[in-house]
Amino acid sequence: MILFRGKNSTALPHSIRLIGDGYHIILEKDGIRGALIPQEKILYHFLPNPGDYYYLPEEDIVIPKVLGESIDRSRKVKATKKNCYIKKDDIFVRLPDKMVPDCNAPLFQPEYASDELYADAKTITDDPAIIAEMIQFLLQK
Length: 141
Prior knowledge:
Blueprint: E1 2-7, E2 16-20, E3 23-27, E4 31-36, E5 39-46, E6 53-56, E7 61-64, H1 65-68, E8 77-78, E9 85-94, E10 118-120, H2 121-126, H3 129-140
Antiparallel strand pairs: 1-4, 2-3, 3-4, 5-9, 6-7, 6-8, 9-10
């Protein structure tokens, strides 16, 4: 569990609770506290421009075409949108629906075209601004 606490820049007249899949946030008169519930999962970061890659089915990885030229044709296929990914088995935090944080870290999905987005837990703990962005996003909904 990732616990956090902070101060509000504006006093609130009453408490607000934001509860969703993977988060529980309480905004009080002059403070914020909450928890993000990480999950261990295998997720995928889908790369742009699949035409620049080969997919190696036996290894379940993509490689740039420049490197793939030396690999036998029987071991590679052209990458598509659905298989042009980086697979990662890690601990992730689910982001609120339709939120795309303003960070340079890769985001992950359970499958291509899924609406669910995740950030790895290390990204969240290394960049607390993402938590602030989550709270702001949730309050605007």
